[in-house]
Design goal:
CATH topology of the largest domain: Pyrimidine Nucleoside Phosphorylase, Chain A, domain 2
Helix content: 40-55%
Number of strands: 13
Bound molecules: uracil
CATH class of the largest domain: Alpha Beta
Oligomer: single chain
Order of helices and strands: HHHHEHEHHEHHEHEEHHHHEEHEEEHEE
Strand order of the largest sheet: 3-2-1-4-5-13
Radius of gyration: 21 Å
CATH architecture of the largest domain: 3-Layer(aba) Sandwich
Number of helices: 16
Shape: globular
Largest sheet: 6 strands, mixed
Structural class: alpha/beta
CATH superfamily of the largest domain: Nucleoside phosphorylase/phosphoribosyltransferase catalytic domain
C-alpha cells in the first residue's frame, strides 16, 4: 500500500477501504506518513467528503490509536459535548444538575483555541483547580462526587491530537467527516455509553448552517450506534453569545449565579434541555420526568451545592477567583430594542482583551472578558451601559459598537434557541 495512491484515490472522489484507512492512521501516528502527505489527504477529504462507512472506519482507527477508559463499574454514566461556542459554559451548569440526580458525569474536556473557549481554561481560572487528574483520581472522584472533569490526556485518541494540529493550520477544520471522527473517537475513548451532543450552528460556530449540522448529527448518531453508544443531538443557536458573560473567570461566576439564583434566560433554558436529555439517557426515564427533576434540583439549590463540592474536591478556591485591574463601561449611542448581539464580534473582542489564545503557546488572562449588561430584546436608551469590559491591558481596542450590537425599533420575535433535536 502506498500513501500517494491513497491521496490520488481521494482526490479522484473514490471511496477508501478499511485497510487503507487503517494504513493512513497508523502510518501518520508512527511517522512513516509525513505531515505534508497527511495535509494533502485531509484537504482531499475536506473537498470530496467521505462515506459514512469510511468515517466509521476512520473513527475506529483513531480510537484504537490511544487508550480507552473502562467505566463499566458504574451504571448511568453520561457525557455531553458541545462543538464549541461563544460564552458556552453549559458544562459547568449541567454536570452538577445531572450528577445530583444520580447519573455519573465523566468528562474529559479541552482548551479553547481561536475564538471558542474551552471548559479546561474556565476551570483553570479558579486558583488551585486541578485539571490534570490521573486515571485513578478520575475514577475515584466519579464514584465519590458523581462528576469529574479533567483535561484530555495525550493518550486518548492519540491520532486525533496529531490530525487536529494539522487541520488547524491547513484550512481543514470544517470537514464534517473529520469533525465527526475527531469528536466521536475521543468520546468513545472516554468510556461513556450515553452522549448528548450540542451542535452549535451560526456565525460564532464551526458549523454555519442547519443542513451541515443535520448531516453531522446523523453521522455522529450512526458512529455512536456502531460503538454501542446512545447519542442525542441538539442543534442550537450560536448567532448570539450564550449567556451574558464571555471570558474565563466571568463565565465561572455566571455558572454559579445561574445555579444559585435560578435565573430564567436562554442559557438556563438550554441547560435545562441538555440536562433533561442526559438524565433521560442516564436513568433511562422519560424526557418529561427527567425535566421535572432537573428543574427541581435547580430550585432547591442541590445542584448549586454539587457544583461547589466538585470545585472544592478538585482543589479549586472559588472565593479567590481573579479580578481584572481595569474595567470599561461601553454605552449605547442608540435607542430602541436590542435585536442582535454578534457572537463572532464579541468573541474577537474578548480575545483581544486577553481572554483566549491566538496560538497554542499563548498564555491567557483568566480575569479578562466581557459582561453584556443587556439581554436580547431589552429596551435600550442612549447612554445605557450595554457591556462592561474587563482586562489587565492598559488600553482597549477600538470598538465599533454597531458591529457588536444591532438596535432596532421593534423586538426580534424570530430568535430560535433550539432548532432541532435528532435522535435514533
Ligand atoms: N471539536 C473536536 O474535538 N474536533 C473537531 O474536529 C471539532 C470540534
Amino acid at each position: 500500500m502506498n500513501i500517494i495512491d491513497i491521496i490520488v484515490k481521494k482526490k479522484n472522489k473514490e471511496v477508501l477501504n478499511e485497510e487503507e484507512i487503517k494504513y493512513v492512521v497508523e502510518g501518520f501516528v508512527n511517522g512513516s506518513i509525513k505531515d505534508y502527505q497527511m495535509s494533502a489527504l485531509l484537504m482531499a477529504i475536506t473537498i470530496n467528503g467521505m462515506t459514512d462507512e469510511e468515517t466509521i472506519s476512520l473513527t475506529k482507527y483513531m480510537l484504537q490509536s490511544g487508550s480507552v477508559l473502562d467505566l463499566s463499574m458504574f451504571n448511568n454514566v453520561v457525557d455531553k459535548h458541545s462543538t464549541g461556542g461563544v460564552g458556552d459554559k453549559t458544562t459547568l451548569i449541567i454536570s452538577p444538575i445531572v450528577a445530583v440526580l444520580g447519573c455519573k458525569v465523566a468528562k474529559m474536556s479541552g482548551r479553547g483555541l481561536g475564538i471558542t473557549g474551552g471548559t479546561i481554561d474556565k476551570l483553570e481560572s479558579i486558583p488551585g483547580f486541578n485539571v490534570n487528574l490521573t486515571k485513578e483520581e478520575f475514577i475515584d472522584e466519579l464514584g465519590k462526587v458523581g462528576m469529574v472533569i479533567t483535561s484530555q490526556t495525550d493518550t486518548i485518541a492519540f491520532a486525533d491530537k496529531k490530525i487536529y494540529a494539522l487541520r488547524d493550520v491547513t484550512g481543514t477544520t470544517e470537514s464534517i467527516p473529520l469533525i465527526a471522527s475527531s469528536i466521536m473517537s475521543k468520546k468513545i475513548a472516554s468510556g461513556s455509553k450515553n452522549l448528548v451532543l450540542d451542535i452549535k450552528v451560526g456565525e460564532g460556530a464551526l458549523i454555519k448552517n442547519i443542513e451541515d449540522a443535520r448531516h453531522l448529527a446523523n453521522l455522529m448518531i450512526k458512529i455512536g450506534k456502531s460503538n454501542n453508544m446512545k447519542v442525542i443531538c441538539l442543534l442550537t443557536n450560536m448567532d448570539v453569545p450564550l449567556g451574558n458573560n464571555i471570558g474565563n473567570s466571568v463565565e465561572v461566576l455566571e455558572a454559579i449565579n445561574i445555579l444559585y439564583y435560578g435565573i430564567d434566560n436562554y442559557l438556563t433554558r438550554l441547560c435545562i434541555e441538555l440536562a433533561s436529555y442526559m438524565v433521560s439517557l442516564g436513568l433511562n426515564i422519560d424526557y418529561m420526568m427527567a425535566k421535572q427533576k432537573v428543574i427541581e434540583v435547580i430550585k432547591n439549590k442541590t445542584a448549586y451545592n454539587k457544583l461547589l463540592e466538585f470545585i472544592a474536591y478538585q482543589k479549586g478556591e472559588i472565593n479567590k477567583l481573579p479580578k481584572s485591574s481595569k474595567m470599561y463601561e461601553i454605552k449605547s449611542n442608540e435607542e430602541g430594542y436590542l435585536i442582535n448581539i454578534s457572537s463572532l464580534e464579541v468573541a474577537k473582542l474578548s480575545s483581544l482583551l486577553g481572554a483566549s489564545r491566538q496560538t497554542k503557546e499563548d498564555t491567557i488572562d483568566y480575569s479578562a472578558g466581557i459582561i453584556i449588561n443587556k439581554n436580547l430584546n431589552d429596551k435600550i436608551n442612549i447612554g445605557d451601559t450595554i457591556m462592561t469590559l474587563y482586562t489587565n491591558k492598559n488600553t482597549i481596542p477600538n470598538i465599533d459598537i454597531n458591529k457588536l450590537f444591532t438596535i432596532g425599533s421593534t423586538p426580534n420575535s424570530s430568535f430560535t434557541l433550539i432548532y432541532e433535536i435528532i435522535k435514533d
